[in-house]
Amino acid sequence: MTYVVALPCVDIKDRACIEECPVDCIYEGDRMLYIHPDECVDCGACEPVCPVEAIHYEDDLPEQWAGFTAANAEFFTELGSPGSAAKTERMPDPEFVARLPATELKG
């Protein structure tokens, strides 16, 4: 099990979770962030700092966002396990995320 980033992160990418992650396992896609399922140590440090509540433990992910579990896994299919998000450039999002309508920023 791992944590999954879901819809509220799309087009927001606040990055507070990246700063809080002790193992540097949160990677950046074009439109959202992704947590590496094999590198994550399930500490949960990322979840409470997310200002849009986009991070959920996989078993607690709301059903309407179930597609994000597969999108998260797909993101790492080509990337593999580099061992450090800081050493990795932004990657393209999986098709599931790339096809989502643009998120309107509030403010």
From TrEMBL:
InterPro entries: 4Fe4S_Fe-S-bd, 4Fe4S_Fe_S_CS, 7Fe_ferredoxin, FdxA_Actino, RnfB_subfamily. Gene3D superfamilies: 3.30.70.20. GO terms for molecular function: 3 iron, 4 sulfur cluster binding; 4 iron, 4 sulfur cluster binding; electron transfer activity; metal ion binding. Residues 31-60 form the 4Fe-4S ferredoxin-type domain. The keyword NADP does not apply. Keywords: 3Fe-4S, 4Fe-4S, Electron transport, Iron, Iron-sulfur, Metal-binding, Repeat, Transport. Binds 1 [3Fe-4S] cluster. It holds the Pfam family Fer4. Its cofactor is [4Fe-4S] cluster; [3Fe-4S] cluster. Ferredoxins are iron-sulfur proteins that transfer electrons in a wide variety of metabolic reactions. PANTHER family: FERREDOXIN (PTHR42859:SF2), OXIDOREDUCTASE (PTHR42859). This is Ferredoxin. It comes from Rhodococcus jostii.
